[in-house]
Amino acid sequence: MMQKAKLTPAPTGPTSFERVQKICKKHGELIAALAGGLLTLSAYLLGLMQVPLGWLLYPAAYVIGGFYKAKEGIVATVRTRQLNVELLMVTAAIGAACINHWLEGAILIFIFALSGALETYSTAKSTNALAALMKLQPEVARLIAHGQESILPVTKICPGDQILIKPGERIPCDAVIVTGETTADEATMTGESVPVYKKVGAELMAGTMNLDGSVIARVTKRSEDSLFSKILELVQSAQTTKAPTQLFIERFERSYVKAVLIAAALMLFAPHFLFGWSWGETVYRAMVLLVVASPCALVASTTPAILSAVAYGARRGILIKGGVHLEQLASVKAIAFDKTGTLTKGRPEVARFMNTSTLDDVTLIKRIAAIENHSSHPLGQAIVSYAARLSDQAILPEAERVKVKPGFGVVGWVHGTEYMIGKKEMMDTEALNAFHQLEQPATMPDDETIVYIASEGKVIGRLSLVDQIRDSAKEAIRTLKKYGIETVMITGDNEKTAAAVQKASGVSRYIANCLPENKAMEIQKMNQAYGHVAMCGDGINDTPALAQASVGIAMGAGNDAALETADIVLMKNDLTRIADSVRLSRKMSRIVKMNIAFALTMIVFLLATNFLQFLTMPFGVVGHEGSTILVILNGLRLLRG
């Protein structure tokens, strides 16, 4: 009798309530602000049409639109025991309602709530940096003990333990190879694009990739003590440190709120006793003071300008994660660049090909590419790409008996002939000397990687590969120098390679042999020397420096961790966009300063005329809201760049 099948119910997706709950949690503040604005507009239109009880929408706009900011203000006041702008805005709106000016209070709440929601979005972008880094950290390791393999969390692996690392796996712990040999891609940690050959006794770094060999390694450090973990700590530390500008703004807000509330309290009583004003006039003037002194125009001085600049940048392929970063870029005096993947393309390319065999160039390179096509090594892939360009995408011949020698090169047969492609250590010494005597250039560039070709006991060719400078690098460096910005290259490469790239790119100076923690330290030194420094990079090894800099800039094709940590992302990998960002930030800074000066002048003027009893509530609203509209329009000019 056939057994009845057991059906496993398919997992169901989130319910409608859960979806709504998720949307409210992520976008609730913005939804509330927009809802408050819509209610305000509806109440105003109903008032024009003289609809009975239409004014009841104003209290609803107060409650819905101002909920998040009022809650934020109350919580912050309880926690810090300091007054804040959120409470002042709520008080000003309530004051406007007390003298029957609901519309003005609702507008104040809407503008302030909207700016707060956008600020929340900007802040949330940077909190994903650590999560992106954590994804690159292996969670488990293959422990080898008593001849048995077991998988354990990396947190339980201790120094002295032996672990197995298979090809294609990320290395879970800092370790030393005990058995086997392999090639490791250390670009995530050192920035070097060319994989490094590792044999017995060589050190492996956690977070790097094991490419083509299975090795057994002895763990040297606990996971929390590895270089990868130190990078996480450096990023976290740099992100939790507040910028001086932010601290100044916080101090200014507290002083401003106290001054306005004290002035409003005095206006409720002092004029009656000092100048003989009636109680009605005194209360009226105090409420007008709260309305005209509310920082609505001050808030509008920055938000529209920032949003316009960010929108313009997005159209130009510049992703700016927050206005504060663009504002800080305006005061940057120096920009540090990573080399691999930033100033350079991050992948080797064949620069020169020498052929001393009896075969023509196309035939030989096709045979070599046929063998290299069986290898996953970046140098081999670069040779295959070069062959495709040289032979106009012709079909490669059949390669047989291909054998990869990790760290050295590859051997294979094509049309019955054996070919060896690899480092000079792989070649016969006498054959190599004979080749050099035949044709040897006077000088070899320091940044080139040389791959030799041998066949039938002779060295018959040589390929010179180099990580090419980006086409946009020279123009970007030249433009930044015109803006008076110092350019510095920080790289993990040696002095010779760094000097060669400096000459090709035009950067002012370079700092070589920098590990990730050294890069962050160099940025700290530059911050002390220049005041404000930007860092441009693309890899996980750059994340501490990106977080430490006043402004972090990442290449769009870079590592996810770098993209999340950076404040600005160049989506099209075009370095000239950095100069565009600097120009945009400086223009935005001028407009914001102009707006703030105008807004403060209007507040002072309105306060003075209110105290002299020249200002009525309608004119106060016109002056206050009119100044707000003017600064918004001035900020919107940045939409044109």
UniProtKB/TrEMBL annotation:
Every P-type ATPase A domain range: 136-236
Alphabetized InterPro entries for the sequence: ATPase_P-typ_cyto_dom_N (IPR023299), ATPase_P-typ_P_site (IPR018303), ATPase_P-typ_TM_dom_sf (IPR023298), ATPase_P-typ_transduc_dom_A_sf (IPR008250), ATPase_P-type_domA (IPR059000), Cation_Transport_ATPase (IPR051949), HAD-like_sf (IPR036412), HAD_sf (IPR023214)
Cell compartment(s), UniProt: Cell membrane
Ranges that cross the membrane: 30-49, 87-114, 259-280, 286-312, 596-615
UniProt record, GO biological process: copper ion transport
UniProt key word Ion transport: yes
Keywords annotated in UniProt: ATP-binding, Cell membrane, Copper, Copper transport, Ion transport, Magnesium, Membrane, Metal-binding, Nucleotide-binding, Phosphoprotein, Translocase, Transmembrane, Transmembrane helix, Transport
PROSITE patterns associated with the record: ATPASE_E1_E2, COF_2
GO molecular function, one term: metal ion binding
Membrane topology, as annotated: Multi-pass membrane protein
GO cellular component: plasma membrane
Similarity remark: Belongs to the cation transport ATPase (P-type) (TC 3.A.3) family. Type IB subfamily.
PANTHER family linked to this entry: CADMIUM_ZINC-TRANSPORTING ATPASE HMA1, CHLOROPLASTIC-RELATED, PROBABLE CADMIUM/ZINC-TRANSPORTING ATPASE HMA1
The protein, known as: ATPase
